[in-house]
Amino acid sequence: MSRAGPPDSGKSRAEPAPPGRLGPLDPRNLDAEQARVLDAMLAGPRGKSGFLSREREVAGPFAPWLRSPGFAHLAQELGAFVRYRTSLDPRLSELAIIVVGAAWRADYEFAAHAVMAIRAGVSRETVDALARGERPSLEREDERIVYEFARELVEDRRVTEERYAAALALLGESGAVELVGILGYYTLVCMTLNAFEVPLGEGMEPPFAAS
Questions:
Q1: Which residues fall within 8 angstroms of residue 138, CB to CB, at 6 or more apart?
Q2: DSSP, residue by residue, 44-75
Q3: Positions of CATH 1.20.1290.10 in the chain
Q4: How many helices (H) and strands (E) are present in the chain, helices listed first?
Q5: Which residue of 44, 112, 136, 174 has the fewest C-beta atoms within 10 A of its own C-beta?
Q6: What is the pLDDT of residue 7?
Q7: What is the band of 48 on the pLDDT scale with cuts at 50, 70, 90?
Q8: Contact, 169 vs 198, CB < 8 A?
């Protein structure tokens, strides 16, 4: 790969992705409880976005999670909130998500949300810098505050008083809690993707340079 960065949805990968440790999950083969959870996801914003469908294999972390439908139900409910219903501007939310994806080098998560981040207003230069493992040059103060808070919590496991005060002033108490929730939920997502070696989806390219 010549350049780290978000995938070009118009390209196909040269070779098919391996199936991952658990293998593909066909919606036609779900049991009743798994089908109820998938139906709940399809009835929400994920279904409207086209991310999930009954016409193709279950994608992303949901394929492993549906092996435990009770867990999948609760996880997807939390995910629906932090993805679609927080008080954060989508630009800031998506920035926080790709900070987590870059820290975990979770191919699927970063490739998927890099595109969403750019659509939400995050610069391609910021996305590319994170994919290379570099500190981005952030001109917008709100992005700098969210990046620094996310980076400290994800990498150092703590947040300094300076970063905490800045995030609180920007987001308020509720927004600060929601930012931590976003970081925590997408850490779970990245752990799932990496533990079960979930492959990239069709049209995705590996976002990180080979190390």
A1: 126, 144, 147
A2: SHHHHHTSS-TTS---TTHHHHTTSHHHHHHH
A3: 90-195
A4: 9, 0
A5: 174
A6: 40
A7: confident
A8: no
